[in-house]
Amino acid sequence: LGIPGNATVLCNFLQTWKINKEIFEVWMEIMGSSLRNSVLVLWGQSGDTVTNLGKEAKKRGVMRDRLRFVKRTEDLTGYHRRLCGCDVFLDTPFYNAGSTTPTVLWAGVPIVTLPGKTTASRLASGFMLGSGQILGNIVVARDLEEYRKLVGRIANRGSRGWKAARNSLEFYRDNLQAHHSLFSTEKHARQMERTVSVMRRLGSTVHQGASKYHVIVAGPR
C-alpha cells in the first residue's frame, strides 16, 4: 500500500455509495482526534470519488494525503495481501459489507460495525457474532459513540484492544472443529442443508402462510 510502517491503517474497500455523510464525519473525527497518525484506504471507484472525498476530508480538517485510494483488483491473492496490510476495516452502517466480510475476517483483520434495523445494515454483525461471541462483543457497536470508541481502541497497532481483537479472530479462525461454522465450509454447508430441509417440510405441511415463518437452525454447542 506504500504507507509508512508506523501509521495506523484504516480501510474500507466497499463501493463508495455506501459511505454516507454521517459515517464519513465519524471517520474524519476519529482521524482528527484519537488516531492522528492514521491513514484511510478506500476504493478509488472513479475520478469523482477521489476528488469529492478528498475535498470533504479537507473540510473536516483531515489532509487529502491521509486518504489513499486504490484500484479494484480481481487478483484474490493481491486483494488478500492488501487487506493484511490494514489494522481495522471500517464498516458502513447504512449498508454493510456483505460477502466482503468473510474475506476480511479470513485475512485476520477485525471489522468494526454498527447494526441497524434493516437486513442490509445487519450483515456484518451477523458474521461477527457468528464468528464467536467474544469477537462479536469486541467489534459490534451499539451506537455511533461506541463505534468511535471501538475504532480508537482496536486500530492502534500493538495496543491491548488491537491484540484482543486479532487474537480472538485468529482463535476462532484456526480452531475450525471446535467453533463456529463461518470458518468451516463443511459445517456451514451441513447447516444450510438442514435449513433447506426444514423449509421444505414446513412448505409441505403449512400450505398457506408458510412464508410468514422465520427458520432458525441452531448448531451444536
SSE series: EHEHEHEHEHHHHH
Largest sheet: 5 strands, parallel
Q: Count of DSSP E strands?
A: 5
Indicate the structural class: alpha/beta
**Uncertain parts:** none
> Strand arrangement, largest sheet?
3-2-1-4-5
Give the overall shape, derived from the CA principal axes.
globular
Could you tell me the radius of gyration in angstroms?
A: 19 Å
Distance between the termini: 41 Å
Indicate the proportion of strand residues.
Answer: 5-15%
Question: What would the average pLDDT be, to the nearest integer?
Answer: 86
Q: How many helical stretches?
A: 9
Share of helical residues: 40-55%
What does this structure look like?
With 221 residues, this protein is an alpha/beta fold. The chain is 47% helix and 9% strand. It contains nine helices and five strands, in the order E-H-E-H-E-H-E-H-E-H-H-H-H-H. It has helices spanning 21-32, 47-59, 76-84, 100-106, 123-130, 133-139, 144-155, 160-174, 185-205; strands spanning 8-12, 38-43, 67-70, 88-90, 111-112. The chain has a five-stranded parallel beta sheet with strand order 3-2-1-4-5. Strand 2 (38-43), helix 2 (47-59) and strand 3 (67-70) form a beta-alpha-beta unit. Helix 6 (133-139) packs antiparallel against helix 8 (160-174). The radius of gyration is 19 Å and the shape is globular.
